[in-house]
Amino acid sequence: MKINETRWVMRETDADLPLMSRVLRINEITANAMANRGIRSKNAAISFLAPTVERLRPAFQMKGMEEAIKKIAAALPEKKIIIYGDYDADGIMSTVILYKTLKKLGANCEYYIPHRIEEGYGLNIAAVEKLASGGGDLLITVDNGISAIEEIKTAAELGVQTIIIDHHEPGFEDSEEDRRTVPTALLKRTDILPSAVAIVDPKQSECEYPFKEMCAAGLVFRLAVSLCEFLQNPLTQTEHDELLVLAAVATLCDIVNLTDENRVIVTGGLAVLNANKLINPGLGSLITLRGYLEKPIDTFTVGFVIGPCLNATGRLESAALAVELLLAPTDETPARLKLAQELIELNEARKNLTLQCVERALSETVDSEKLPKVLVLTDFEAHESVAGIVAGRIRDATCRPTILLTQGNGAVKGSGRSVEGYNLFEALYRHRHLFNRFGGHKMAAGLTLPEENIGALRTALNNDCTLTDEDFHPILQIDRVLSPDEISLALSDELARLAPFGKGNAEPLFASYGLHAEKVRIINEKNTLIFTFVCKTGRRLKGIAFGLNENYAAIFADKNENICFDAVYCIETNVWNNNAEVQIRIKDFRC
After folding, report:
1. CATH assignment of 55-254?
2. Which of 15, 124, 370, 504 has its CA 20 to 30 A from that of 554?
3. How does pLDDT run across 52-67, given as a tens digit for each residue?
4. Domain-wise residue ranges, the chain
């Protein structure tokens, strides 16, 4: 498949960098990176550099939070509370956080996780009827519910009250004339909301809470802390720290913006987890078996080592397995280790299914110059649980919004992943008449539709799409051009203060032109390049590049001494045999 050439885009700022550097006592290079991320005031900079839990806003400022807490408090301890979760890491962690909190408060409560294959996403009528017949009085949906209009109406008819804690986009009313003449993002909307007794979702149009990007587990964490305080039974420090860790893991796995309150939750959660890897015994078992009990845990470890094991349960079995692991007590070590091993094995199976499906999907996208703007791919051989992962891989390879449709349980089901600048939820919402059901947000969505509507969906999305050819090139946004002599261990340590890095807070990227590589070591079996650069002062600097061997061979024909090129890279610290040295991790280079 042809990959479009990566665009190097220089970020620009009019911030007074010398002043920022002086006031904050940081390198001007670091100040530049912060300014590029919108941090322009002293207070904003202090909050960014010291993202403590105390900086979280009062949870009661969130629309629906007070009502939700009072309804839950009124249900304690006699009424039966059912937590209705979801089968991904966010839904799993949301369920565990709320269950642990309610049990601490003496609640009569249970949890219910829908089966991905048999029931699909979110509430369903059969589950509502089952839970009502089992004596449920109060149903609390976490990481779902905002689009469950009929299901929550049915619950009310059966005498079950519902509280929604969700972070997905609600449906909204708009006229056909508005959709034709006004950009969707500018429409004044009237939310279409379920008839729940309380709804906590910052994406409600009437919610004035300033931060809208928390995942469901982050919202549940805020509710849990506030509920315990409201009932004058506050969480102990250990209880608080454990729930914070679970919320941080969910925040990273759900790939929400690592800014504002999400940054606070992740920073605090990772600090606690690295101080006590067994703070949640079940999570500790998984960390142990993955070989990280004695290693530092960062955003990569959570997102690509731990998180996929949690998600795999909901994809191939039942996510209730992950909930069971995370609720397992300290003294059941053999049982916890057995459960954790099962999660790891499920993830290995998931990897194999994903690889097969990606290879088939890539065969449909051989020549990117002929691809439509929005990809709507079908693979009825694919396991429906990996559709979202595969859509993301194809999106990454083509820089196009991608939906992968599979055959599942009598209907065509699909998952979509989007690119910056294309609101997938809004695009699908315009054509909601084509679906049996759907939901999501601007970067990801799930849907079910009749097979005969696939062609209409493909045509409609591409006719509406305003993305241009320039949008289909990968972009590396460069924070600053540096001389190699400016790269130091002290700078690396300072830039590390801007972590955690991820969506919304990208790791700082720098460019250097005319780098002189004295020597290049090519490790083909690991698809890795190791460079030794010579600075003008004579100092030597190490560089490393992963996954660029083919590009290197194409440009330099296996030459490995005395070459010059331009590069875009991150600055990092490499520790070997207790010795720390600065190095650059190269993301792209040009002759």
Report:
1. 3.90.1640.30
2. 370
3. 999 999 999 999 999 9
4. 7-12+475-590, 55-254, 277-359, 368-472
